[in-house]
Amino acid sequence: MRNNSMHPMHPPTENTPRQDLPFSLPPLFLSETGERIRTIEEWREKRRPQLLELFRTHVYGRAPVEKPAGLHFKVDATIPGLFSGKAVRKEVSIGLSGPGGEGRIKVFVTLPTGSAQPVPAFLLICHLPPELIDLRESTPFWPVEEIIKRGYAAVTFYTADVDPDEHDGFHNGVHGVFAQPGESRSPDAWGTIAAWAWGARRVMDYLESEPAIDCRRVAVAGHSRGGKTALWTGANDERFALVISNSSGCTGAALARHMRGETVEKINTAFPHWFCENYKKFNNREEQLPVDQHQLLALIAPRRLYINSASEDAWADPEGEFLSCLHAEPVYSLFGLPGLGVTAMPEPGTELHEGHLGYHLRKGGHELGLYDWQRYLDYADRHWQ
Ligand code: GTR
Predict the structure, then answer these.
(1) pLDDT digit string, tens, across residues 344-384
(2) Domain-located, residue 31
(3) Which pLDDT score is estimated for 18?
(4) 53: burial class by Cβ within 10 Å (0-12, 13-18, 19+)?
(5) In what order do the strands lie in the sheet with 213-223?
(6) pLDDT for residue 13
(7) Which atom of ligand 1 lies nearest, measured to the CA of 127?
(8) Would you say residue 263 lies in a domain?
(9) How far apart are CA 24 and CA 260, in angstroms?
(10) CB within 8 A of 219, min separation 6: which ones?
């Protein structure tokens, strides 16, 4: 039963019936000033903005602009007759300019033909470079044909167009475009994941101008570093109705304090450009982080969230991802919405599609493939029809 009132049916509780953990997590329902959060209104107006600020300050960093003045869209090409006439692809450039110069994000928008109504869409944040994946083709990683067949638009962009995936001193990509001349970087300035998330939000700006898309039903999805980015995108931008994290692992869906597989120190060492400088203070000090990742998941509520893990993907900590979902559920309960529907980690091969929190644990390793997409499409078919 849905409960939209200011007063939840039951006061929110953090502990039951979730699994006990051998560490304590930062709270969902206690504000920084010690105030207990009891209602949807208090969550929305007090706690949610506080948590976003904590994640900006200590983890992902702060974007210097929202939608920039001068953002513009140009259709570079329209290619009809794809997949035996079932789809048309538009190739669109999003033009950006800031104090440090100009940028361009190329967006590939494949639309099913013949729909009288605007269609829902899947937006993939693609971190694989053009040398590895051609986004104009249908592949297991990006099965455009399957997405179209189910009646959805398939939208994607290369993250490298927004910001290169390398430690370049934050001079290139949108970091450079929006830096003020002579500005020194603050310890909470945006890292590369935050830059990519910002780029995904600009793609949503474009989609809002595209009459063939139903912007009330847009899912943002990504795999691994793209999954971390999808979560941060969805946390910041309530225009996304569904957020899909495919094996996002450390600083994605997995609880930092669970400390299996990749840890804060390991990720900050291997990828020093992904997060803000402040995050490095928590190398080997996860217990002192002011946030944990269940709170990131909770920021998506009451919108739909779908988490995937793979049984042999120990580096991304499947158990830590599942526990994070369980511990985000109280916020869905506050909204009167169903979560996973289980309290123990399911067997590999299981999918949980009933609730506002969707989940599957695929047998196998670290990848995004057709099996995963079919689960995401099934979930959308079920809840978006
Ligand atoms: C790994 C990294 C993970 C994950 C992955 C990926 O090397 O340790 O955090 O993001 O890369 O994006 O493929």
Answers:
(1) 999 999 999 999 999 999 999 999 999 999 999 999 999 99
(2) no
(3) 61
(4) middle
(5) 72-81, 87-98, 101-112, 153-158, 119-126, 213-223, 242-246, 304-310, 357-362, 351-352
(6) 66
(7) 12
(8) yes
(9) 16
(10) 120, 121, 122, 123, 240, 241, 242, 243, 244, 376, 380
| Domain span at 356 | 40-384
Q: How far apart are the first and last CA of the chain?
A: 19
Q: Place 385 in a pLDDT band, splitting at 50, 70 and 90.
A: confident
What is the best residue among 165, 231, 315, 368 to mutate for testing ligand 1's pocket, by most ligand atoms within 8 Å of CB? 315
Alpha helices in 126-263 (DSSP H): 144-149, 159-162, 173-177, 192-207, 225-236
Q: Given the CA of residue 270, which atom of ligand 1 is nearest to it? A: 8
Report the pLDDT value the prediction gives residue 12, as an integer from 0 to 100.
61
- Overall domain count for the chain: 1
Ligand 1 pocket mutation, candidates 125, 228, 262, 309, criterion most atoms within 8 A of CB: 262
Distance 119 CA to ligand 1 centre (A): 32
Residue 8: inside a domain: no
What is the 46 CA–ligand 1 centroid distance (Å)? 33
Between the CA of 245 and the centroid of ligand 1 the distance, in Å, is 13
Residue 24 within any structural domain of the chain: no
Instruction: With CA atoms as reference, report the closest residue to 87 among 46, 11, 49, 138.
Output: 138
* Predicted TM-score of the model (pTM): 0.96
Q: What is the pLDDT of residue 20?
A: 78
For the cut 80, the answer to whether the pLDDT of residue 96 exceeds it is: yes
Residues identified as active-site: 224, 366
pLDDT in tens, 247-279: 999 999 999 999 999 999 999 999 999 999 999
Kindly report the CATH number assigned to the domain that includes residue 51: 3.40.50.1820
> Which residues lie with the beta carbon below 6 Å from any ligand 1 atom?
224-225, 249-250, 262, 267, 270
